[in-house]
Specification:
Elements (H helix, E strand, L loop, with lengths): L1 H17 L4 H16 L3 E10 L2 E11 L2 E4 L11 E2 L4 H9 L3 E3 L2 E7 L5 E8 L5 H25 L9 H25 L15 E8 L2 H8 L1 H18 L5 E6 L2 E6 L4 H17 L1 E2 L3 E2 L2 E8 L5 H17 L5 E3 H7 L15
Parallel strand pairs: 13-14
Antiparallel strand pairs: 1-2, 1-7, 2-3, 2-4, 5-6, 6-7, 8-10, 8-13, 9-10, 11-12
Helix pairs in contact: 1-2, 1-4, 2-4, 6-7, 7-8
């Protein structure tokens, strides 16, 4: 009877997970499937990513018998993000790659297709017997298969960054999030000062990155070397930006960054840090490579095309003024280096 119930739970897990088309929903389905299967007091899913030579982890989903809470919506900076280096138990767990049982909890790894870590599961239960552990591993395998399908449709095969098709959905979700946050800020204006939202903390940024003179690299060294440059640059992007920022290959030598909440100064520093890292790197055979970057704030009422156009205008200004710079559209407007165009969102229709 126990085997039949376990099989039923696994079949139910397949149905629950195959019905999801986004990562957060897939993670929620995994946590809820394990709660139902194991009758555990709690199941937590942690995600991890390497950035700047360190591996960071953060809580993504927490589930128990009372319900499920999504802690990482893919848009905001995750709460309680931690470096594995400061957590000896987790560091050992990541190094061994094996499940670990301690007093009151069991840790199980979640791996990507390339055997890198997606994250891990924390099951709050004194211990799992062999049948429970086997069933849990099978449910995680279903999750991994669904994750691989999402990766196939969302990830650029050369660079491992998110692809152009995925960008539109992320930007749409960010705009909805920014609009909601803006409404909440208007409400908070009526609250005491200490309880008001800080507007700068709500700012997201869109940056367009273009490799300078990339055609010369392809013409002079061949497309295979050009691909090596793209791959190395993508690797450096992952190391330079924060683990929770979204990085896209937009096509050819153009990349896009969706920078999660930061003020204008921090956004400028983030783009300059990446630009300087590229400038300082010696690329095999090619030698010195530089990038030009234009970026713009994502406003609550701005159409996606307008936001991208502003970042693109800043990028073209950089290319016309020496390249190898990172320029903020709003700062260029304020200095008079660019003139704001009449945009559709500025025109009132009668």
């Amino acid at each position: 009877m126990e085997q039949i119930n376990t099989l039923e739970h696994i079949i139910k897990s397949i149905g629950r997970m195959t019905g999801r088309r986004e990562r957060s929903g897939l993670e929620i389905a995994l946590a809820e499937s394990l709660i139902e299967l194991l009758k555990a007091s709690g199941v937590n899913i942690y995600k991890c990513q390497e950035s700047g030579g360190e591996t960071f982890v953060w809580l993504s989903v927490a589930a128990n018998c009372e319900g499920t809470v999504l802690h990482d919506n893919g848009l905001s900076k995750p709460d309680n993000i931690m470096s594995v280096e400061r957590l000896p138990v987790l560091k050992t767990f990541f190094e061994t790659g094996e499940h670990e049982a301690q007093a009151g909890r069991t840790l199980l790894p979640i791996l990507n297709e390339d055997s890198s870590y997606f994250g891990f599961i924390e099951i709050l239960e004194p211990s799992l017997d062999l049948s429970q552990l086997t069933a849990t591993v099978e449910v995680i395998r279903i999750f991994n298969n669904m994750l691989a399908l999402l990766n196939y449709s969302e990830i650029d095969t050369l660079t491992g960054l998110l692809n152009r098709k995925t960008f539109d959905e992320y930007l749409r979700r960010i705009l909805l999030s920014v609009a909601r946050a803006s409404d909440e800020t208007l409400v908070s204006d009526k609250l005491p000062k200490r309880r008001q939202a800080q507007v700068d903390e709500l700012d997201h940024w869109l940056g367009v990155v273009d490799i300078d003179h990339f055609k010369k690299i392809n013409d002079g060294f061949g497309h295979s070397i050009g691909d090596e440059v793209l791959l190395l640059l993508a690797t450096m992007m992952k190391r330079s930006f924060r683990a929770y920022d979204k990085l896209f290959r937009f096509g050819g030598e153009e990349f896009v960054v969706l920078l999660k909440p930061a003020d204008e100064r921090d956004a400028q520093m983030a783009f300059d840090r990446f630009r300087l890292a590229i400038e300082a790197r010696e690329f095999p055979l090619v030698g010195r490579v530089t990038v030009s970057i234009g970026f713009a704030r994502i406003g609550p009422n701005d159409p996606p095309s307008i936001i991208f156009e502003r970042a693109d205008e800043a990028l073209y200004w950089v290319k016309e003024h020496g390249r190898n710079q990172a320029a903020n559209y709003e700062a260029l407007i304020a200095r008079g280096d660019l003139k704001r165009k009449v945009e559709k969102s500025d025109v009132e229709l009668y």
